[in-house]
Design goal:
YbaK protein; alpha+beta; aminoacyl-tRNA deacylase activity; about 575 residues; BirA Bifunctional Protein, domain 2; nine-stranded mixed beta sheet; about 25% helix; nucleotide-binding; Rossmann fold
Length: about 575
């Protein structure tokens, strides 16, 4: 490809709305352009990278015997109502009506559609197991699209769905996908981890894992043990439960109401009473499917909303605002406590064994001290309702402590069980002619966000550094002067020779200063750069490896061999 003919305009400065480095560099490098908030066009370089990611995914999916299909992006909402997810997705589900006023949705995912497809196509155990996948555009009406391709309203996704006759079959399908995902992300060149996770709106009846690319700008917190292989998303992570003890009532501690004017927050209360946060218990009010619930956690801990939601098996959870607290409970915000509160109390296990605590008195400017959990308020709902903290004890081993890392979710695998097949009637006849419900799995990869994840992990102060497996081109040929006939003869010979052997080459044939060419080359991040300059007359060129920063003067006839030694170019010989 000749760079003078390529639709490629680089920018010296990133637009002000680009906050994370991957967004900045892909805009500056001419890989993407924004059409609207969270909606992007892929220019030739970006599309080449995207296609290579897709190809790796296809190769590994096909290796598992999964079969590629393509399903409609526009889905009748009757399917979503049938599955029960119409209200769960809420405003993120982009809805529209046709001229006959029939309602459709732009698919954020395809569990309903694929289940309906298979129920109509498969009726016998002889056709199972089967795994179907597609690579297709998805749509979600994000409240605040941000970070470029990391959180958009339109994005490319690979979604696969397995259908088995029993749970052991699902276990095998899940294992194949779990291993395939490791192979995919290794081939792409990502530093990633598979972590225990929560199923979220997809739901399911078995284990689920997220695949996380490690990076400091990641929206997700990854929790690991410093001694064993325990690893989980913060939403799912647990710590070793505090040692249980018999019911202890401290007779010498008497409940007392104290005046705490304007001490509404934990920080204000600790300063006013001169106590530590761990001596205070926060009473947080949530609306769980519209009903008020109080969650009690230590003052230095944070409520885990996913755990609360899962405890009730609820569809929606949200923190109650001041109006909801006042109208539903009639208590002052900032002074809420469990004593006498007539709603369900979810008590975190770390609160249970506290001998005496400080809580709100449900009265303006007052708190209780010396409150005893077993004595002064109900203990019907006790469980793990908090986010773990860094340094907590590992739930799996005796010696370990928990550490935190940041990550970008790039893939997620689920054991769905019969969540969708039962509601949508996906059944088959077994060997005895009896009708059975199919057992499903679901496996997604955020294809477009992989580009951002790679750039976040692989860049320097000059620009992107693409792994050779997904780079837009393998080699960048950069002549110092396109007017120098000797240099251009060497360029043409190398271009023909490399292309003949399957090496993808971009030739910078622009009439630009060398400094401009080198800056653009560094910015777009092609793995190998061959500089053809004044030594071309002696048959010498400069060989530069973008990631390593190595510059070596070599003979021009060595270029092909050195390039073919780099994976994944080597298999092309």
């Amino acid at each position: 490809m000749r760079q003078s003919k390529l639709l490629l305009n680089t920018l010296r400065e990133a637009p002000s709305e680009a906050e994370v480095i991957s967004h900045q560099l892909m805009l500056r490098g001419g890989f993407i352009r924004q059409l609207a908030a969270g909606i992007y066009s892929y220019l030739p370089l970006g599309r080449r990278v995207l296609r290579k990611v897709e190809q790796i995914i296809r190769e590994e999916m096909d290796r598992t015997s999964a079969q590629e299909i393509l399903m409609p992006a526009m889905q009748p909402t009757e399917l979503w109502k049938e599955s029960g997810r119409y209200s769960i997705y809420g405003p993120e589900l982009i809805r529209l009506h046709d001229r006959h006023d029939r309602e459709f949705a732009l698919g954020p995912t395809h569990e309903e559609v694929v289940t309906a497809l298979v129920r109509n196509e498969v009726s016998s155990y002889r056709k199972l197991p089967v795994t179907l996948y597609q690579i297709q555009t998805k749509f979600r009406d994000e409240r605040r699209p941000r970070s470029g391709l990391l959180r958009g309203r339109e994005f490319l996704m690979k979604d696969a769905y397995s259908f088995d006759t029993d749970w052991s079959g699902l276990d095998e399908s899940y294992r194949k996908m779990y291993e395939a995902y490791h192979q995919i992300f290794n081939r792409i060149g990502l530093n990633f981890r598979a972590v225990e996770a929560d199923a979220g709106a997809i739901g399911g009846e078995g284990e689920t894992h997220e695949f996380m690319a490690l990076t400091e700008i990641g929206e997700d917190t990854i929790v690991t043990c410093n001694c064993c292989d325990y690893i989980a998303n913060l939403e799912k992570a647990e710590s070793r439960a505090p040692l249980s003890s018999d019911l202890i009532i401290c007779a010498d501690r008497v409940k007392e109401k104290v005046h705490t004017p304007n001490a509404r927050t934990i920080e204000e209360l600790t300063e006013f009473l001169n106590v530590e946060k761990q001596n205070i218990v926060k009473t947080m009010i949530y609306l769980v499917d519209g009903n008020p619930v109080a969650v009690l956690v230590r003052g230095d801990h944070e409520v885990n909303e996913v755990k609360v939601k899962n405890y009730f098996g609820a569809e929606n959870i949200e923190i109650a605002d001041d109006h909801a607290i006042s109208s539903k409970l009639g208590v002052p915000v900032g002074f809420i406590g469990p004593v006498g509160l007539q709603i369900p109390l979810l008590v975190d296990v770390n609160v249970v064994n506290m001998p005496a605590i400080i809580v709100g008195a449900n009265e303006q400017d007052f708190h209780y001290i010396n409150i005893q959990p077993h004595k002064d308020f109900a203990m019907e709902h006790v469980g793990d309702f908090r986010n773990v903290s860094e340094g907590d004890s590992c739930p799996r081993c005796e010696q370990g402590n928990l550490q935190f890392y940041r990550g970008i979710e790039i893939g997620h695998v689920f054991k769905l069980g019969t969540k969708y097949s039962e509601k949508l009637g996906a059944t088959y006849l077994d060997s005895s002619g009896k009708e059975q419900t199919m057992i499903m799995g679901c496996y997604g990869i955020g294809v477009s966000r992989i580009l951002s994840a790679v750039v976040e992990q692989s860049h320097d102060e000059h620009g992107m550094v693409w792994p050779i497996s997904i780079a837009p081109f393998h080699v960048h040929l950069v002549p110092i002067s396109v007017k120098d006939e000797v240099q251009m003869n060497v360029v043409e010979q190398l271009y023909q020779q490399l292309s003949k052997h399957g090496v993808e080459v971009l030739v910078d044939d622009r009439e630009e200063r060398p400094g401009v060419k080198f800056k653009d080359s560094d910015l777009i991040g092609i793995p190998i750069r061959i500089v053809i300059g004044k030594d071309a007359a002696q048959g010498l060129v400069e060989f530069v490896e973008r990631g390593a920063g190595h510059k070596t003067t070599i003979e021009a006839d060595q270029v092909l061999q050195l390039c073919l030694e780099r994976d994944p170019i080597a298999p092309r010989r």
